[in-house]
Design brief:
about 290 residues; mainly alpha; 14 helices; disordered C terminus
Length: about 290
């Protein structure tokens, strides 16, 4: 069975408490006025219990007051009810009001507790400013692209409507969002998780998810412009490069090109012995240097 979140579990507890309190109230009124539960009451109770998983059914239970149909109209009966019955009525109303307030809090609050701020130190200035200007290798180590490639990517997506909103609170600058996305794309396993990237970027985990999503949407809009089959001239140039960089037998694509100094049997397998084919990408501004 799927695990319930804390929010869902608390809502479920409120619903169960409301149903249990109503059942006790019904039994107490039956004893007080000598009423016996009819078949309709039993069916009504089963209907209420079956609807306990829905907000509408439970909100009706949580905010239900004393049923006027169960209170006798005989003034003598009312006068003989005694102080204990009045106290029971007040106790019931107090409990139902408390459950109603708890339900209102759970359905209107995004955070159930006050969390301590997580201290983070952003690396965005270090990468985008210092490394971009003075240390391209460290820039590439963080984002997996050189500064000119980053600038070219930014020019293609910075005007996309996904980065525009009508809110009074502006979005994070597009270069920062692209940096966060590239950092996440360039890492794997735990290092690519939203929490890890958020700690590196000095942002929230939600911002990491939003930034990566927006960047993906912006790049997908360029699909028809940048994704195409290579021309005959480009195929010929690729074959000539394969022949010059490896061996003539590979120029027609009989085997993948391993741009490495190791033997093929070692280069194409991981330390677990799993075949790991490689893909080389070419940037348009540096077509003669595989990145």
């Amino acid at each position: 069975m799927p695990t319930l979140s804390l929010h869902q579990q608390l809502l479920h507890d409120v619903f169960e408490d409301a149903a249990r309190l109503q059942a006790l109230r019904r039994d107490e009124l039956d004893l007080r006025f000598g009423l016996e539960s009819s078949t309709e009451d039993v069916e009504s109770e089963s209907d209420v219990e079956s609807n306990m998983s829905t907000t509408s059914g439970i909100s009706a239970i949580s905010f239900m007051s004393i049923d006027s149909a169960q209170v006798p109209e005989d003034s003598d009966a009312i006068s003989n009810s005694g102080i204990d019955e009045i106290a029971a009525d007040e106790l019931y109303l107090r409990h139902m009001t408390a459950l109603g307030e708890r339900l209102h809090f759970l359905t209107t609050s995004r955070h159930l507790a006050v969390y301590k701020a997580v201290h983070k130190a952003s690396q965005l200035h270090l990468v985008l400013q210092l490394y971009n200007e003075n240390n391209p290798k460290r820039f590439r180590r963080n984002l997996r692209v050189f500064p000119p490639t980053f600038d070219a990517l930014l020019n293609h997506i910075e005007n996309h409507t996904i980065f525009q909103n009508q809110s009074n609170v502006p979005q994070m600058p597009v270069p920062h969002q692209l940096t966060i996305a590239l950092y996440q794309f360039g890492h794997d396993e735990n290092a690519a998780g939203p929490e890890a990237v958020a700690q590196w970027a000095g942002s929230s985990a939600g911002m990491v998810v939003k930034a990566s999503r927006r960047v993906i949407v912006a790049f997908l809009a360029l699909h028809d412009q940048v994704i195409r089959w290579p021309s005959a001239a480009e195929k010929k140039a690729a074959k000539e490069w394969a022949e010059a960089d490896s061996c003539a037998a590979w120029m027609h694509g009989y085997a993948p090109i391993w741009h490495t100094g190791y033997a093929l049997r070692e280069a194409c397998t991981s330390w677990r012995g799993i075949l790991r084919p490689q893909v080389e990408l070419f940037a348009q501004h540096a077509a003669h240097h595989p990145s």
